[in-house]
Amino acid sequence: MLQHFELHVLLAMLREGGETYSVPLVLALEKRMARPVSQAAVFIGLSRLEKKGLVASRLDEPDSGRTRRYFRLTRQGLAAVREHRSEHARLWRGLGRALRSHKA
């Protein structure tokens, strides 16, 4: 089972395409969510996703500069995104009228 934020991280990874590291994910999430996102939260989410087999990582140790951990979606990760999309579509189906007519 995915946590809400983990799904957000997977979606940001899908948008980035290919391999990515935490900084571009933070920026992408902040842009889409219109609120600050901590790099530590993204890295913790990535670690959890990796333990679940939904992302894989590799360490890049360049001759100069910082070592970075790059992440990519696995087949299982892509399947999880697709399943969540289908599940959410089923849950939202038919709620348009209820949302328009509901008075809070």
Q: Structural class of the secondary structure composition? A: mainly alpha
Proportion in helices? 55-70%
Shape: elongated
**Whole-number mean pLDDT:** 92
| Low-pLDDT stretches | none
Question: What would a concise description of this structure say?
Answer:
The protein has 104 residues and is mainly alpha-helical. The chain is 61% helix and 12% strand. The protein is built from 5 helices and 2 strands.
Task: Tell me the layout of helices and strands.
Elements: H1 4-16, H2 22-33, H3 39-51, E1 55-60, E2 68-73, H4 75-92, H5 95-101
Helix pairs in contact: 1-2, 1-4, 2-3
Key terms:
104 residues, mainly alpha, two-stranded antiparallel sheet, 2 strands, 12% strand
Task: Give an account of the 3D structure.
By secondary structure, the chain is mostly helical. It is 61% helix and 12% strand. The chain has five helices and two strands. The protein has a two-stranded antiparallel ribbon. α1 packs across α2 and α2 (22-33) packs across α3. The chain starts with a helix and ends with a helix. 22% of the residues are buried.
